[in-house]
Design a protein that fits this description.
Elements lengths: L5 E6 L4 H5 L6 E5 L2 E2 L3 H7 L4 E8 L2 E8 L8 E3 L47 H7 L2 E2 L6 H10 L4 E4 L5 H8 L7 H10 L4 E7 L7 H11 L5 E8 L22 H21 L7 E3 L1 H7 L21 H12 L6 E13 L3 H11 L3 E10 L16 H10 L6 E5 L16 H6 L4 E5 L2 H10 L6
């Protein structure tokens, strides 16, 4: 029996769903006769103006007709989709993030909570690629999946390629039909679906001539392929130097090797910029390469629409541009002397120091930047998004004077903003600090938090 998706958690007051009588706890089964299997089905079928909703309430079957405008939201919020609905990954990629985590139930020193359970779900689901930009390998699609992609035109998708060499991809991905990636992308194109691709590079494995080949092969599939991101492999102390088959052991890139990768990719970028009418480079380097080599980040125009920003491509430049546009809203002075602590990962410390320099122009405000070393995953893991709550708390507790406010990047938390990777909740985290702490998403929220310091009771 097909799994069902549509349990209603909340109905927006005054919405078409509310006016039609739908209630929290209802189970939406069909829309216009189509079975609702997941959120993609719901979004696809609910776009119509005339809807017949089949739903279940207390084991009784009901049906209601709704008329709305094409772009009007139905007003239904669903309960969280459980893990069994996620298409699990059958591959055994050499650098799989699961291998970079501690064993799920193995005791870890100082880890009272265990790791967040969702981290151990290996998804390779085209629905999540379409909805959330998750990267998939295209190795597990069955004929009915291709038919659904064609019917619903789920575009764009985000595809992990890593290499277009069939034999090497079979070794790196170790999954069904791994060597057929170019044929799979061409089939996407035959259904008018485009994709953004990524090449996760591992030193001496899929770089060098393999990288050149992959870029050329994917460029030949334009406009099906909209972009390529080149990303260095991310390793923790749990999978650093791990060896698979006859491939070299995994390791981090050295600054010298990273500089060579930048020069290699920049040669392709110059060619594409000259060829493309829009002047965009088509292939992009993730921010880590520039941090590793201490090179300047490309200008904003280089990144176009920032299509792969969630993959760490252009994230730093976007932050800097956003800060330049909004820093004029900084207060000129504090009503009382204040101090703020800015928490970050070690990689972004130089960039956060740039922002802190502007904040220090505020009269009466002292600003310290606190880069947190990742003890849990290893010091070579430098991004803020992989910091565990225990490491952040330890760094803050060792600091003598945090001031009046601690600002932390929201990327440290899960999608709901509730807990860290190690399952420490925001509520528990804040309760252990002697000062106010806020998690901010962007420059605007950072400035709003700073402005609020003028309204703290003395």
């Amino acid at each position: 029996m097909p799994k069902m998706y549509g349990w209603v958690r909340e109905v927006v007051p005054g919405s078409p769903a509310d006016l039609a009588g739908l209630q929290p706890g209802d189970l939406i089964r069909t829309i216009n006769g189509h079975l609702i299997r997941d959120l993609v089905d719901y979004q696809f079928y609910v776009a119509e103006e005339e809807l017949t909703i089949g739903f279940e309430r207390q084991l009784n079957q009901h049906e209601v007709s709704i008329t709305k405008s094409y772009d009007e939201n139905l007003g239904v919020l669903f309960g969280e989709e459980p893990a069994p609905f996620i298409r699990q990954c059958a591959n055994k990629c050499v650098f799989c993030f699961i291998k970079g985590l501690p064993e799920r139930f193995a005791p870890q020193p100082g880890l009272a909570h265990g790791m967040r359970a969702s981290l151990y779900i290996k998804d390779d689901d085209y629905r999540y690629s379409f909805l959330f930009g998750n990267f998939i390998t295209l190795t597990n699609l069955k004929e009915h999946d291709w038919q659904r992609l064609d019917e619903q035109k789920l575009t764009p998708l985000y595809v992990s390629v890593h290499t277009t060499d069939p034999d090497l991809r079979r070794k790196m991905v170790d999954g069904p039909r791994a060597g057929d990636i170019l044929e799979h992308i061409q089939r996407l194109g035959s259904t008018h679906i485009t994709c953004h691709t990524q090449l996760v590079l591992c030193p001496t494995i899929n770089d060098g001539p393999y990288l050149d080949r992959s870029i050329r092969d994917l460029a030949a599939l334009r406009p099906i392929v909209e972009s390529i991101s080149v990303v260095p492999v991310g390793l923790t102390k749990y999978n650093n130097m791990i060896k698979t088959g006859d491939l070299p052991s995994l390791r981090h890139y050295t600054p010298e090797e990273a500089a060579a990768i930048i020069e290699q990719v920049e040669a392709h970028q110059r060619q594409f910029e000259a060829e493309n009418a829009d002047g965009y480079p088509f292939v992009y380097l993730s921010d880590e390469w520039y941090y590793l080599t201490k090179r300047d980040f490309p200008p904003a125009r280089h990144y176009g629409s920032y299509a792969q920003i969630e993959n760490g491509v252009g994230m730093t430049r976007y932050l800097l541009e956003q800060w330049e546009r909004t820093k004029r809203k900084l207060p000129t002075s504090m009503q009382e002397p204040r101090k703020v602590t800015l928490v970050t990962g070690t990689m972004a410390e130089p960039i956060i120091e740039q922002l802190a320099a502007d904040m220090r122009e505020i009269e009466g405000l002292e600003v310290q930047v606190l880069p947190v070393v990742n003890r849990f995953f290893g010091a070579e893991v430098t991004v803020a998004g992989l910091l565990c709550g225990q490491d952040v708390l330890a760094a803050l507790e060792q600091n003598r004077y945090l001031g009046d406010l601690v600002l932390l990047p929201r990327v440290m938390l899960d999608n709901e903003g509730v807990r860290f990777l190690d399952d420490i909740t925001v509520e528990e985290f804040k309760s252990r600090l002697p000062v106010r702490a806020e998690f901010v998403r962007n420059a605007q929220e950072t400035i709003e938090a700073l402005r609020s310091l003028n309204y703290i009771a003395v």
